[in-house]
Amino acid sequence: MHDLPMHLLESILSDLPVKESVSISCMCKSWHDDLWSIVSADDTSTSTESDFKKSLEKLLRSPSYFLNVKLRCTKFKRHSFLHEFLRELLKKKVIILEIAVDRHEGLGFFPIPPEVLTSMHLRVLKIASARIILPPPGTFTRLSAIEVDVSRSSHASILDFYKWCPVLQDLQIHGKIMRLPDKKQKFQIRSQSLLRLKIKLHLHKMQLDRGKGVYLAAANLYEVEVDAPQLEVLDIDESVFAKLKVGNFKCLREVRLQSGFYEAKRQLGEVGQLLVLSREVFHTINKASLSTSCLVVGDGAFGALSFTFMDYLFSGNEAAIRDKFRVTFPDFLCVKSLRLCISDSAGWLFMPYLLAHLPNLQKLDLELVDREDVRKGKRFDWNPPKYYVGWCLASVKHVRLIGFGEMMEEAGLILAFVREAATEERFEKITITYE
Questions:
Q1: Tens of pLDDT along 203-256?
Q2: How far apart are CA 70 and CA 39, in angstroms?
Q3: Residue 378, SS3 per DSSP
Q4: Which residues contact residue 89 at a Cβ distance below 8 angstroms, ignoring those fewer than 6 apart?
Q5: What is the pLDDT of residues 59-90, one digit of tens each?
Q6: Sequence-separated (6 or more) residues with CB below 8 Å from residue 339
Q7: Which helix (H) or strand (E) holds 258?
Q8: Is-above-0.85 flag for pTM?
């Protein structure tokens, strides 16, 4: 088969579905290299629109199919010739397509041609600064993965077109926000097929330089509403303190949460303002984690949680604190695996009270995070609560300590707490590991 003429091999593979065609071509490196190219169409290296058009035409004359294409236009953004290029490009059986066309001064956002969304071969679409032209319902039949970059201003159609994608399984919405939008950005993610959702939104350095007001402004501009009953993985990493609204997750097995709490803490001088943002993280964790079996809380998200918890410390003795906290914090009955990343003493103080709300927890990872913006004396200044016997770690089987290194005294405090909280008899059956 290695001696098969390339035109005959191309004819054979062209009759197969894309997945099988790619798999078979991978049997031989020369086949794959000759038949499936990964190309970039970028106007930064061309000085005129005419030269850029010639480079696109040269790409289209290639005999290869295109596995992965990146179209990036910052200078030459006229919609008509880009549409024509994309229509011809799709005949190359493109599987992964990335489109980033800066907004045209006169024409506005670049409209994604309907042919892109209705392609029989395209599986992954990555877009930035674009507008979606909605075709009739039921025509987005192939897209299984979408990635949206909202670093720059985005058209409203980007916020809610996901419901038109009946086989969508992976969705990423990310961006380093360079300019806060003029209107509220409400993402409505409604999908019966979505399995994995990742939201990663952070403020660009040029926004942070504007001062503390930017955090409070951003918190009122971003909202994410998720209705995806088949969702399995939810990953949220953000510093815009977006409001989260979620439906019922029947199949959720992993939730990962991270927040820009410490970055906001550096900027905000008033405790009250930081508390407002921290409570948003508190509500997000409450909503997102009730039905998951695995929960991973980054140090920023846990910092916001522990900061909110400090309000309860004025309630008096430990029993009163625990009772008051239980009123507002639910029991996570489904969580069996928990990883907490902790970088300050408030987090360690809060940790036992959180564990009391995970009655079915079996695996506990505790990671000591070394942050430059947390003073060394404040990273692990902890006196474990005295009255925790019987109210946490009732079912834990595995404990893993991460990042303690030579801090054996601190690790010893953790193990002493585990011994008391799990009771002496159960502690002997718990597996303890270090990393």
A1: 888 777 777 778 888 888 899 999 999 999 999 999 888 888 888 888 899 999
A2: 7
A3: helix
A4: 59, 60, 66, 69, 97
A5: 888 877 788 899 999 998 889 999 999 999 98
A6: 295, 296, 297, 365, 366, 367
A7: strand 254-259
A8: yes
